[in-house]
Amino acid sequence: MRAIEEVRRRAFRALIPPPRMPLSEWIEREMRLPEAVSALPGRVRLWPYQREIADAITDPAVERVSLVKPVRVGFSTILSGAVASYVANEPSPILVLLPTEADCRDYTVSDLEPIFEATPCLHGLLSAEADETGRNTLSSRRFPGGSLKIVAAKSPRNLRRHNVRILLMDEVDGMEVSKEGDPITLAERRTLSFANRKIIMGSTPVHEETSNVLRAYAQSDARVFEVPCKLCGSFSEIQWAHIEWATGRPETAAFRCPHCEEIVDEKYKPEMVEAGRWRATRPEVKGHAGFRLNALVSCLANASWAKLATEFVAATGHPDKLQTFVNTILAQGWRESAEELDEAGLASRRERFGLDEIPAPILMVTTGIDVQDDRLELTFLGHSRTETFVLAHMVIWGSPLDNTTWYELDELLKSRWPHPLGGTIGVDAAVIDSGDGGVTDAVYGFTRPRFNRKIMSGKGVSGFQRPAIQKSQAKGVPLFLVGVDALKAQLLSRLSRGRDIRFSDSLEPRYFEELTSERRVVRYRSGRPERVFERISGRRAECLDCFVYAIAARGLLTLDPDRREAELSQIVVSKKSSNTIRSAWLDRRA
Ligand SMILES: [Zn+2]
After folding, report:
1. 304: CA distance to ligand 1 center in Å?
2. Which GO molecular function annotations are given, in alphabetical order (predicted)?
């Protein structure tokens, strides 16, 4: 395969034709935008960053162009310009690949046809072609010396019959692998018989790990667009980190030059961008031009720094909106923030409280229990009106098939601890994982006589849409189904973005290692990118499981917090206080 590729490459170099009019020049001289397509109809004036991208497309020494793009920088003008210029100047078989049928229809009707209508030298060039059933199709056109197909990546079988010289693909990160294969690979295969082929690819990146356009850019000469500072003249790529604004006033957003460290006002942006230039960061790569652009260089009114900073502020705290901002404005792939959770950071948040020092806001206590062959592990959570407190994590050594193990657990679950309001507090509900086949009967045997104390058997079920806890419909089985994926997702997002989960200083380092033992990643399953939880290799997860079950147990409670607060405030002198478990138990951790 490599040898064929090399022969093809050499043939390609030998075939380089004399220079033609660069695409940017052709677009500005010949192309006309109709009112339906642009707010600025008529002749097209390209921005400096658009010009070099356009020229790379018609540069005979360039075989591939890969563009990592944000929205609001006018890529569709370049795409249409490229199609139009090939039709007019270098008639060839052309294929445009877009993610869906709707994209194809929309592009043909709203962009391509109006531009061909409005542009004098293109007028009447495209004629509809009948498909095999005799119907005219929108997506297949003939013109003197060539043909144009517009195909949806969702129906890759339409790719089979045609060999093309010019392949243009837009929004490649929206193209999914189907059982017929990867549409991008299938489309590229159609170009192999042309020594002077062109493969043009553009997209807003989506997920960093699975992005097609980021992968292509990484193989290119990786150009970045740099503008000169108004104040010191040094060139830099404007990045989000360089945009600053006064706290609470995103409308004051401005650029801090990384060289002179002075603030440059938005009003200088057009002249800086006009004087900007592309720089290849991997100049040793030949024949593959890669461009990376973000919306910070866009001079459109809806992409002003102030407008973007306002959008960013509005998106903060909303992961979905933030991802849209990162993808479409910054043109960066999204990384799940949960991946950046580090156990050391969480451990450093430990505070002085625990079962023997219950914080006053706690109104309820729940326990989650994980069953292993040689031990039980359990986490005690305190719940205030707004926060979750991890009070303790403990281990009871002994086989789950041994009665004394369960006796120890029962004693712990019956304990009461002094509450600062004056009364005592105990475990309000507990869920024990009965999922492991060998111990199911033992767990059922323990929970069955303790339903009135809300001590229940639980079993994890996957799927992000599941409720936290729900009674199993299976008859005669005393079982609750726990939506572990949804609860883990909620936990990871609370841990990474908030501080409403608080940790006792009695927790050991291994607690935090296990709590962060799974991360949400993107995986291809049956060809589809999918987010799943994956265990970090070599880590145990009992503490995570206990946490999830203890949170699920909270769902069994329908207590009125006001009433509970009143109860805790009534000082009850009880003989049971001798039963209070103190730090002796805390020392029994593994
Ligand atoms: Zn400067």
Report:
1. 20
2. ATP binding; ATP hydrolysis activity; endonuclease activity
Residue 539 is assigned to a structural domain of this protein: yes
- Residue 124's pLDDT band, with cuts at 50, 70 and 90, is confident
Contacts for 185-191 with beta carbons within 8 Å, 24 or more apart? Answer: 186/156, 186/159, 186/160, 187/95, 187/97, 187/151, 187/153, 187/156, 187/159, 190/95, 190/159, 190/162, 190/163, 190/164, 191/163, 191/164, 191/165, 191/167
Q: Comparing 319 with 248, which gets the higher pLDDT?
A: 248
Give the distance (Å) from ligand 1 centre to CA of residue 293.
20
Residue 206 lies in a domain: yes
- Res 536: pLDDT: 75
Ligand 1 centroid distance, CA of 264 (Å): 8
How close is the Cα of 586 to the center of ligand 1, in Å?
A: 59
**Distance of CA 305 from the midpoint of ligand 1 (Å):** 17
**pTM given for the model:** 0.59
Q: Domain total for the chain?
A: 2
Residue carrying structure tokens 């243009």: 168
Centre of ligand 1 from the C-alpha of residue 229, in Å: 5
Q: What distance in angstroms lies between residue 322's CA and the mean position of ligand 1's atoms?
A: 29
Q: What tokens appear for 100 in the block? A: 């869906």
Q: What is the pLDDT of residues 146-170, one digit of tens each?
A: 999 999 988 777 777 779 999 999 9
Whether residues 288 and 409 fall in one domain: no
Residue 184: domain span: 17-222+283-293
What is the average pLDDT value for the chain, to the nearest integer? Answer: 86
What is the 78 CA–ligand 1 centroid distance (Å)? 31
